[in-house]
Amino acid sequence: MTRSARDRLLDIREACDAIGSYLVRAESDDQMAFDAIRVRLIEIGEAVKDIEPAVLSSEPTIPWAEIARMRDQLTHRYFDTAHSIVRATAAGDIPQLAESVIRLLERIDARQSSENTAH
Fold first, then answer.
1. Residues 44, 94: Cα–Cα separation, whole Å
2. Which of 106, 15, 17 is nearest to 55 (CA)?
3. Catalytic residues, which ones?
4. What is the DSSP string of 9-67?
5. pLDDT score for 117
6. C-alpha dist (Å) from residue 9 to 14, 38, 77, 79, 108
7. What is the average pLDDT across 57-86?
8. Sign of CA dihedral 33, 71, 16, 97
9. pTM as predicted
10. What are the phi and psi torsion angles at 77 (to 5°)?
11. 7 falls in which pLDDT band (50, 70, 90)?
């Protein structure tokens, strides 16, 4: 089953929200919180890989290719992933990503709405 760009963006938004809630626990160096954040970052990277570049290009300030590469790093080099990098990404980059995803969803919804009213 192929998922739409909108579905993938909703997945990313959900993962961003979850990461925000896990950050509180991550401050105490909680391994479970670190693992949860890492898994959600992998989910985000996987979703990004499956969204058409034309959709992502309307948010050029987000490093989409780096997000996909981070997914690969977290998946294949899990044994040397520093907690500090995961925490810094979660705290510093995820809020901006979440805002961009909301804007992308709004654009998709507006386009679908205008297409529906045109028919």
1. 10
2. 106
3. 71, 76
4. HHHHHHHHHHHHHHHHHHTTT-HHHHHHHHHHHHHHHHHHHTS-HHHHTT-TTS-HHHH
5. 81
6. 9, 18, 25, 28, 10
7. 93
8. positive
9. 0.89
10. -120, 40
11. very high
Q: Using CA atoms, how far apart are residues 109 and 101, in angstroms rounded to an integer?
A: 12
The first and second tokens of residue 105, run together, are 């969803």
Place of tokens 């992502």: 56
The length of the chain, given as a count of residues: 119
Count of CB atoms situated within 10 Å of the CB of 98: 16
* pLDDT tens-place string over residues 77-103: 888 888 889 989 999 999 999 999 999
AA identity, residue 60: P
Q: Which residues touch 53 (CB under 8 Å, ≥6 apart)?
A: 64
